[in-house]
Specification:
alpha/beta, Rossmann fold, 6-stranded parallel sheet, 18 helices, 45% helix, elongated, binds uridine-5'-diphosphate-xylopyranose
Amino acid sequence: MKIGIIGTGYVGLVSAVGLAELGHEVVGTDKVAEKIEKISQGNVPIYEPGLQELLQANLRRGNLSFTADLTSTIATSDVLFVCVNTPQREDGSADMTYVEGVSRKIAENLNQYKLIVEKSTVPVRTSSWIKRTISLYRKRDVDFDVASNPEFLREGAAVSDFLHPDRVIIGVESERAREILVKIYERFQDRILVTNIDTAELIKHASNSFLAMKISYINLMADLCERTDADVEQVAQGMGLDERIGSRFLRAGLGYGGSCFPKDVRALIRIGEDLGVDLNLLKEVDRINFNCVNKTVDRLKKALWILKDKKIALLGLAFKPETDDIRNAPSIGLIERLREEGALLQMYDPQAVENMKTLFPEKKPELVYAASPYDALKGANAALIVTEWDEIKDLDLKQAKDQMENLILVDGRNVFNPAAVRKMGFEYSSVGRK
Ligand code: UDX
């Protein structure tokens, strides 16, 4: 069985490498030829721990290859995983143009039975559209099946998530498709859940929105903690001890970002609107998340009164540690808000600086990128912890202190122990803790 992966973005590239690692013969394709060239030479265009090594090992083994030729990939593959992006539109809905385009291409090149598997995060009922599109444009009366196999990998842990999944969701409508996908994921037999296609599609959106809701929920509890003597870390710990709740995704802070949660929550709201189901619950989740940035700016104002011409060190820019991804990162909203206030920003991140420069080019002295956290802290009137990289958690606070003009520390990720940093002389505020 030959597997073709269409789209070598985050999901596509990890899936291509992961499926090759499972022993399958895989060819990956992408419309960006330079990217394909780079990947073919064993270079990963994103920062993802472990991916480059695994890519190189499978390229060497010979069962993984990449090409910019979509037509030949379609023609020579038995199973096609559609991993193209579904960008967010102004109204929150997912733009399905690329998925439709790929479906037409598959239709034009359908030369024998093929299984088309959607792996991109797509609105429920997308597979019906893929099926209809292929039926409309196919040149020959060749049989095909459509299936859904949503991907749940987390950035920064993508390789391990792919090779050790909690569950493999397979949405199918024919026995033939079920057999093929169960065979592909044979190694995870005990974790496979087979459903119909609509269910599989909805599981992805429902899972991501639920996790986003958990984060917004704990951030709301953090607001209550700040107005009482409660401590949000202990509230989360106490809640998490109940197995029905679980302790994960209850870290209060600057809120969620990334390529999935913000987009998926909004997409599900839109899906609800289209289907006549009121998903106001998720609108609140989105609103609470949006407010996390505003509350952080308010903390800085509370400490410094006027932010104009104040030097603020932003430590961390990526939407979470172990990635260079800044998509929907809280840092973007922070930079915009703080620049509106006229603050001078000195920013540091171990991996995300190049990406951030494409959005906010360096402009001295308003926007400066520093080579180390200590450089960012030079002469700062306040420091703001934005991403909990180990390097930032392990910051030498004595050295930090020597660099700063005012010892004001606003911790957006609750990485420091309040008593310990205060003892060192910092004026310290964090989320939901005294
Ligand atoms: C997420 C899902 O976890 C994954 O299953 C899906 O396939 C894609 O979306 P990812 O976006 O890589 O993965 O990041 P994740 O580790 O889930 O974190 C998402 C965001 O939530 C980050 O901004 C993180 O900082 C934030 N977060 C997470 C919190 O604010 N608090 C928490 O307790 C957990």
